[in-house]
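pipeline: protein-struct stage 2 | run 1193 | Phosphatidylserine synthase
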Amino acid sequence: FRRAHTLTVLFILTCALGYVTLLEETPQDTAYNTKRGIVASILVFLCFGVTQAKDGPFSRPHPAYWRFWLCVSVVYELFLIFILFQTVQDGRQFMKYIDPHLGVPLPERDYGGNCLIYDSGNETDPFHNIWDKLDGFVPAHFFGWYLKTLMIRDWWMCMIISVMFEFLEYSLEHQLPNFSECWWDHWIMDVILCNGLGIYCGMKTLSWLSLKTYKWQGLWNIPTYKGKMKRIVFQFTPYSWVKFEWKPASSLRRWLAVCGIIFVFLLAELNTFYLKFVLWMPPEHYLVLLRLVFFVNVGGVAMREIYDFMDDPKFHKKLGQQAWLVAAITATEFLIVVKYDPYTLTLSLPFYITQCWILGIILVLTWTAWRFFIRDITLRYKEIRRQKQEHKYEKDKCLSNGDGHSSILEEQNGNKLRERKL
């Protein structure tokens, strides 16, 4: 019944758009008409998707909200595919249709340089290096990791991703100058203060959500105005709560899944910086912020779908649609980076960086082989050996006992009689 009403709204909206275009005089500007037609087409598709798309795992504040972001994922993926099939020059100049200020090469800001915390040579402001790093990206880091913690719902995974990304910045600073930062900017400001504080606040919020009583009452059944306002605010909290227990060491399947999640997270983080570099977008541009808002909304749904698929594969027989779209978007963004600037990506790593990564990969593979193969074989061998020792001990105990000896003889005679009958 609700879907029928929403389809009626979609039909009225389409007719209204057509009526407006018939009434007004169409401008003789091809670029303007093209942009207007594309925007109208996207709006009609979003209206259709909000009413007809499949519901996801979340129902608050409303299922239509999450269907909207699912359709936005489709539109964004189609946009990325279009950019991927353009030449480098055409793709960069196409961004001018979105914002005329784009399509111009921008110098990358180097956050390294003078890494003195207290610069005694600057008598006016000896702490100027610290104040230079305290820009708008500091609260962005904090809120970003706060929301990522709400998505992942695991302290260890968040800390691993946070630390691993700092190692990636160390490893790739020869490709992007933006990755060049001071040591205290990496580990004190990023990992401990911004990321660490965001993860801590996120875990406290998760603890509150897990302890909250989820008992809902209709808005019109609440007698007081204070209760009604409280109910409206709680509409933006989860309908129920599911605690994520990833347990990566419990099985090889879960271990590979957790490693894949960490890999996709890190790749999406790197795409943020590389896309800005290859498409000539300044870090403070609103498109960069919109992309982060987009990933915050679709990432939470994708993580829930992945966890449901891992935790209960009998009920969730296939991976959710939003999870597949997020994976496709991340892969397409990476392909755009590879096509638009292969020279930067193929700059060889320094030798000591290569050695560190090879050592880390060998350690991870060694632990995986020991935990899920060698350790299981060793435990199985010890269990068989223990069972044989217990069987031998019981046999010796029975032989040392007269009753046990006679029962063993009777059992042997019975076996001989059965063999003769056969």
